[in-house]
Design a protein that fits this description.
The structure is a single chain. This protein is 39% helix and 21% strand. By secondary structure, the chain is of the alpha/beta class. The chain has 2 domains: 270 residues, Aldehyde Dehydrogenase, Chain A, domain 1 (3-Layer(aba) Sandwich), CATH 3.40.605; 189 residues, 3-Layer(aba) Sandwich (Aldehyde Dehydrogenase, Chain A, domain 2). The longest helix is centred in the N-terminal third of the chain and has 22 residues. The protein starts with 13 loop residues before the first strand and ends with a strand. The structure holds succinic acid. The site of succinic acid has 8 residues, from loops.
Length: 485
């Protein structure tokens, strides 16, 4: 099949029972760079959510009974189709989400890599035969799919956060209903189109875009037909869903907010640390849950580090995602811009210094925020305690290793953390002391399909990606065979 164009991949209805299902109610999806409407999308309600759940339930029997090899082959076809259609998927994502097209193409590859990875994992889903402890018995441990799953995904990674949930679910033999984000539903609908074209059977994947996240989320979380819910988003919403899932003791994975520290120790290489910080801070314009949020720099390196990072930040080019040479696109909406501006101005009025940026780039449009460096941040400032979710580097200082660790851990969140250091003993000591699900040491890049991704404390439960990501969609069954002695 020849590759799609962006317009032939722009689907705007719900995807249920393998068909495009329109609704009378529609909502608009706009391009954050221009404000232009790019699509009018179907708006699912509670009835349609129930229909999607029934569709997934009807498809479960035959999908779960396909051999692991058959499921893996279909996943590999889906992976190949994503790669063949990378350009169209990237243009669509950039139009609805704002990230530059080359960065969006990188996300398509990242998203597809989960499909490839879990195609492999489907074929490695072995169980156990336990050692004999009673000669009259043998015990087998078998892994089985959880059943119908539901996923609720965020706008910041419109492709990868969908595939990171659908691929392990399908690999395990589960079927799924996905509520994609209201702001960026088009990337996920395009993925459903490709899945259908490569032969993933009707009802195995169902997508229900909506403006009524509360009702649809509650319907998915409380349905007794749905046996597992996976959510990526805010800690506040995650807590509500966790409560709702308790109604029928559903299996749950939550990837929630973060407040990632990035520590630069006195033995770090300043330029390399600044380079790594750029990678994890400015990916997607700072709109990631694992973006470095609190930059803790050893007092002795403060001037050098502030200087190095400020030079790099000043060199970033901001503009619409479809313009060549752009590093950073717009923020997602006015709420995001207002939050970033509020945090920066509050830090300034509390005594911090704006080294560069600190304002909206209004000649480009209302949603473009200047890449910003703020130094002289202290622990009590709001900017140090809230997830910035924007292109702002907030720098504070410390004097001892113990102080850095204590400050880094002083948050209810525990998703990602980073540090730069050379001393091997320190690298182990600090890695072990940081209360986080993920630690990046001398690197700002920690996301790969083969890495377990997830947090502790109020950043969530469960892991995505990696060999552990499949377990979230499996139940363990113990079979005891008696009368053998
Ligand atoms: C996120 O934190 O928002 C997801 C980022 C990733 O998978 O790297």
């Amino acid at each position: 099949m020849s590759a799609h164009s962006m317009s032939s991949l722009t689907k705007t209805d719900c995807f249920i029972e393998g068909h495009w299902v329109p609704t009378e109610a529609r909502f608009t999806v706009t391009n954050p760079a221009t404000g232009d409407v790019i699509a009018e999308v179907a708006d699912a309600d509670e009835d349609l959510t129930q229909r999607a759940i029934n569709s997934a339930e009807d498809a479960l029997h035959s999908w779960s009974r396909k051999s692991a090899r058959e499921r893996a082959e279909l996943l590999r076809k889906w992976y190949n189709s994503m790669i063949d259609n990378k350009q169209a998927l990237a243009e669509l994502m950039s139009a609805e989400q704002g990230k530059p097209v080359p960065e969006a193409a990188g996300e398509v590859e990242y998203g597809a890599s989960f499909v490839d990875w879990f195609a492999g994992e489907a074929e490695r889903m072995d169980g156990d035969i336990l050692p004999v402890v009673d000669n009259s018995k043998r015990v087998l441990v078998m892994k089985q799919p959880v059943g119908v799953c539901a996923a609720i995904t965020p706008w910041n990674f419109p492709n990868a956060m969908i595939t990171r949930k659908i691929a392990p679910a399908l690999a395990a033999g589960c079927t799924i209903v996905v509520k994609p984000p209201q702001l960026t539903p088009l990337s996920s609908l395009a993925l459903a189109q490709l899945a259908s074209e490569v032969g993933i059977p009707d009802g195995v994947i169902n997508l229900i875009p909506t403006t009524d996240a509360k009702t649809v989320g509650k319907t998915l979380a409380t349905s007794d037909k749905v046996r597992k819910l996976s959510f990526t988003g805010s800690t506040g919403v995650g807590k509500v869903l966790m409560q709702q899932c308790s109604e029928n003791v559903k299996k749950i994975s939550l990837e929630l907010g973060g407040n990632a520290p990035f520590i630069v120790f006195d033995d770090a290489d300043v330029d390399s640390a600044a380079e790594q910080l750029m990678a994890c801070k400015f990916r997607n314009g700072g709109q990631t849950c694992i973006a470095a949020n609190r930059i803790l720099v050893h007092e002795s390196l403060k001037d050098d580090f502030v200087n190095a990072i400020t030079q790099k930040v000043k060199a970033l080019r901001v503009g619409p995602g479809d313009k060549e040479g752009v590093d950073l696109g717009p923020l997602i909406d006015t709420d995001a811009v207002d939050k970033v501006q509020r945090l920066v101005l509050a830090a300034k009025s509390d005594g911090a210094t704006i080294e560069t940026g600190g304002h909206v780039l209004s000649d480009l449009g209302d949603l473009f925020y200047a890449p910003t460096v703020v130094s002289g941040v202290t622990e009590d400032m709001e900017i140090n305690n809230e997830e910035i979710f924007g292109p702002v580097v907030a720098i504070s200082t410390f004097e001892t290793e113990e102080e850095a660790i204590e400050k880094a851990n002083n948050t209810p969140f525990g998703l990602a953390s980073y540090f730069a250091a050379k001393d091997t003993a320190r690298i182990f000591r600090v890695s072990e002391a940081l209360e986080y699900g993920m630690v990046g040491v001398n690197t700002g890049g920690i996301s790969h399909a083969y890495n377990p991704f997830g947090g502790i404390k109020e950043s969530g439960v469960g892991r995505e990606g990696s060999k552990y990501g499949l377990d979230e969609y499996l139940e363990i069954k113990t079979i005891t065979l008696g009368g053998l002695g």
